[in-house]
Design goal:
alpha/beta, 9 helices, 2 domains
């Protein structure tokens, strides 16, 4: 299927590895020019150079913290306007809410709620003027099924979902071809799950490998997802064919969520 987005420009956060890398790769393979953003310059440079050798589209990169105004400015210095924005940033650390201070909550909100909103604000009107725009916010399945030790993430990401539910339905956006959706990953084989399971391993004394096996068994698919399949789904959400999809929370979790709605 031709997704109809060749030649578009995409901004992808957290693009050096994991789910962000999967999204950047899938979009570039569809002919989308991508600006990859991540904090670790060495890892990002290697990822961008590897991808550039595999695709015909332009692959640019900038080592910056996309959750900060300075990082966002650096990304837009690479390219001035974007047709596609994939909001993606690492989640806050796991822990017990009794140990968190106000500063911990503010940091989580800045990274996982306010930064995506800032990028939405910066891009949607231009997208509407050009008649095409796709924003995909990578959040977490914990928004649907909260994880006890991920309280910072549960709260901040839920706030983003509440905001998107309203703005995505503005007629002046969606009637002009701009859609905003959330993509909620379940258990994917990324550094994030290693961090989360590592915290549990420290707490319970179990080995990391034992916890990985146990967690994979809880998924009806009996495995963790891959960055490649996540990226492919993200690319479809950015396609011309997905123009009637907006304001939705798409759960990609191998069937792990037990609810009907």
């Amino acid at each position: 299927m031709d997704l109809g987005i060749a030649g578009k420009w995409a901004l992808v956060g957290g693009a050096s590895r994991g789910l962000g890398w999967g999204c950047a790769k899938a979009l570039a393979e569809e002919g989308v020019n991508v600006v990859m953003v991540s904090r670790r310059e060495d890892v990002l440079r290697d990822a961008a150079e590897t991808l550039a050798k595999q695709v015909k589209s332009q692959v640019l990169w900038v080592a910056a913290d996309i959750t900060t105004p300075a990082g966002q400015d650096a990304a837009f210095a690479q390219h001035g306007q974007f047709d596609i924005v994939v909001n993606n940033a690492g989640g806050p650390p796991p822990g017990d809410f009794r140990d968190w201070e106000r500063e911990d909550w503010i940091k989580a909100l800045d990274a996982n709620m306010l930064a995506p909103i800032a990028l939405i604000k910066r891009t949607v009107d231009g997208m509407a003027e050009r008649g095409f725009g796709r924003i995909v916010n990578i959040t977490s399945s914990s928004v649907k099924q909260p994880v006890e030790i991920l309280g910072l993430s549960n709260g901040a990401r839920s706030g983003l979902h509440g905001f998107v539910a309203g703005v995505a339905r503005q007629p002046k956006l969606v009637s002009r071809g701009v859609t905003i959706n959330n993509l909620l990953p379940g258990k994917f084989d990324t550094d994030r799950i290693k961090t989360t399971l590592g915290a549990r391993a420290q707490k319970t004394g179990e080995s990391l490998e034992t916890l990985r096996e146990e967690q994979a068994k809880l998924v009806p698919a009996k495995r963790f997802g891959t960055a490649e399949e996540f990226g492919a789904f993200c690319a479809f959400m950015c396609s011309q064919q997905a123009s009637y999809l907006t304001g939705q929370n798409i759960l990609l979790d191998g069937g792990a969520y037990p609810g009907t709605y």
